[in-house]
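Class, discuss our next protein.
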Amino acid sequence: MPLPQPHDLTTLVLRTDFGDDAAWEALCAALDGADTYPCATPVSDPRFAGAGVQTLLAEESAAGEDERICEVFLADATALAGPDHPLLAVDLFTEPGRTFRVPVRWYPSISANLSIANMDFAEYADAADPSGTFRGFGDG
């Protein structure tokens, strides 16, 4: 079964941790408040509970060509527990399985640029700090 399709000009934020509904609601509120234009398609589907990168890659490789998406952002236990809600960005297209973390404050810019193919996943992943978290291009 393919991954859910994001709405036009947004990227998919997929919930994989179902241990704290309040944390999920806080993450969704942070996404909504991060930008004036909707940039996320949040999906909370229990069939993705505990899904990791390899599971998502398998789901996506089984999808039809016009059902595939290029990247997904996971709301996993780390994203839901952290105050900055560091989503796990996963490349599903160019370098399948490549990841980096992105705090919600940076998510709208990344989502917009990926959605319109202004920048690609690798540009953000390459700019991640040593912990694997994108914190902007040189502005800390």
